[in-house]
Amino acid sequence: MMTNLSGKVVLLTGGLGSLGRAQAAALARSGARVLLLDRPENAEGPGIAAELAAANKGTVIYVGCDLNRLAEAESAVKALADEEGTIDILINNAALIINRPFEEFSLGEYEDQIRVNSSAAFALARACAPGMKKKGQGRIVNFCSVTLNGRWEGYVPYVASKGAMLGLTKSLARELGPYGITVNAVSPGAVVSEAEERVFGERLEEYNDWILTNQSLKRRIEPQHIADLVLFLVSPASDMISGQNINIDGGW
Q1: Is 191:215 a contact under the CB 8 Å cutoff?
Q2: How many domains, in total, are found in the chain?
Q3: Residue 14: which CATH number?
Q4: 161 φψ region: left (φ > 0), alpha (ψ -120 to 50), beta (else)
Q5: Per annotation, catalytic residue among 62, 110, 155, 158
Q6: pLDDT in tens, 148-184
Q7: What is the residue range of 229's domain?
Q8: Which of 118, 123, 223, 244 has its CA 20 to 30 A from that of 168?
Q9: Distances in Å between the alpha carbon of 197 and those of 1, 16, 34, 206?
Q10: For this structure, is 158 an active site residue?
Q11: Cβ(233)–Cβ(187) below 8 Å
């Protein structure tokens, strides 16, 4: 059955990546007005948003915003919420990810990943929650990760940031639940994406073999699989689900 999100305004961070584009397409097809937030220096943003809108017969608008600048990002999203009337659905999908031994990360790189991957979700939830509370309903979906299972090496700042995101999800769900707002997390496994190509480069084939060896299901997860789960979590079908972290990892 087709999910109907007509009249809903969605703010989706990290919207230009593989996972973000798949989610934006699914949301637009469902009738939502999608605000596609990503880095302001990305000149392709408006064009990608326009292509997604045309291909899915919906509304997709690019919003340039630097999540590294938390106070500015929060203020910008507050202004956006006022302009739109409210933001009904917030999807904190944006993330930085680097693979290397933890001693080789600088403190600045660690702080950048914590800030973009989890602190930004706190800032944007603060910006969106007042409008959701006023309407007596809302959805927040945070992205965690399969790396929280502890079987991955070389991602210390990333995993730390996702641990913080999990705690944020559970605590926000308690505070916002009385206002009709659900807060859930999605923990994807290894998804075929541009990010993994960037991170692993010449090691991509070896990485792919390792994933398929460790997954119970012997095929790769695609961005559309993640988009389908997100669509469920923002739909009326998930009305009584909150404070959960849902793994979609092919069975680790």
Answers
A1: no
A2: 1
A3: 3.40.50.720
A4: alpha
A5: 158
A6: 998 889 999 999 999 999 999 999 999 999 999 999 9
A7: 9-245
A8: 223
A9: 34, 15, 27, 12
A10: yes
A11: no
